[in-house]
Amino acid sequence: MAMRAVDLLSGRLKLRHLVLVVEIADRGSVLRAAEHLRLAQPAVTRSLREVEHILGVELFTRGPRGVTPTLFGDAFIEHARAVLAELRRAGDRIAGLADGEVGTVAVGTLLAGSNVLLPRAIAALKRARPGVTVIVREATFDAQVPRLLDGEIDLILGRLNPIDDLPGLRQINLYGEPVRLVARVDHPARAREGLCLADLLDYPWVLPLEQTALRQELEQIFRSEGLPLPANRVECTSVLTVRTLVRDADMIATLPDLVARTDDHIAPLPVPLEPVRRQVGVTLHAGRELTPSARLMLDRLREEAAKLVIE
């Protein structure tokens, strides 16, 4: 039978146990975790057994290709990540309070805002605080929210997705930005007269992933015109990948206006997407105070966003 939760405060469970379990989960292997932690595999195995003995349950199922978390393992790993994230935040806050020149801020980024606003804000922050480390993690909004709630990231920058069913979050609007249909400057579709959305179905597309708000809006536009989604498509949210595919092939994509304007080889197509306008901003944990480094990043994001509006 599993030990009661209060027993975890007896002093038997160590911080190194949490680090070790999370590392094994991330690496999917005791051996790879040992290598990354620079420990002997027997020592890691022994420590894992200590944790499992303390908890009274098995955390991982061993297999020929590594380990897989059990139901108990998934639950414990989730809490271990949260504890480690809070400790990192505590260390960052203490360091920030003691010396405003150092610290760490982790930013989860979406497509909008990642190409222009974020680099400018990071550059401004590093000019003022060169000792602050900035960590950028790119993913969809759905993937970023758990990281934000667990404390792995300090804020999410990008399109403001609906958060009505997520009471633990709050948002700050920074600027509005239209979305454009884009292609390379010498794309054959540009030679067509009276170009419309239906004409573009003859070409390959790069679409956002299904779980993104932009994808849902695009699907509504296609439905309103009685058109199917492009059958020949790639689904991707990486700015670098989308821009490269559009620039080097006959692919068509949707990009925020600022992204489209920063590449001389890509230009908007004369097919408007009037209903699609992005409100770009920051999503934050509603009940958690920002660290000094995260506050500095938010201040720089606000300042650089204001300049974008002026431009």
Q: Can you walk me through this structure?
A:
The radius of gyration is 23 Å and the shape is globular. Helix 5 links the parallel strand 3 and strand 4. The protein has ten helices and eleven strands. It folds into three domains: 75 residues, Arc Repressor Mutant, subunit A; 108 residues, D-Maltodextrin-Binding Protein, domain 2 (3-Layer(aba) Sandwich), CATH 3.40.190; 101 residues, 3-Layer(aba) Sandwich (D-Maltodextrin-Binding Protein, domain 2). It is an alpha/beta fold and 311 residues long.
Question: What attributes does this structure have?
Answer:
3 domains, 10 helices, 311 residues, two-stranded antiparallel ribbon, D-Maltodextrin-Binding Protein, domain 2, alpha/beta, Arc Repressor Mutant, subunit A, 9-stranded mixed β-sheet, 11 strands
Let me know the largest β-sheet: 9 strands, mixed
Number of helical segments with 4 or more residues: 10
Q: Which CATH class of the largest domain?
A: Alpha Beta
Please tell me what the overall shape is: globular
Series of secondary-structure elements, N-terminal to C-terminal: HHHEEHEHEHEEEHEHEHEEH
Distance linking N and C termini: 64 Å
Are there runs of 5+ residues with pLDDT below 50, and where?
none
Under the CATH scheme, the architecture of the largest domain is 3-Layer(aba) Sandwich
Find the CATH topology of the largest domain.
D-Maltodextrin-Binding Protein, domain 2
CATH superfamily of the largest domain: Periplasmic binding protein-like II
Structural class: alpha/beta
Q: What fraction of the residues are assigned to beta strands by DSSP?
A: 15-25%
C-alpha-based Rg, rounded = 23 Å
Q: Can you count the beta strands?
A: 11
Helical content stands at 40-55%
Output mean pLDDT.
87
Q: What number of structural domains do the residues give? A: 3
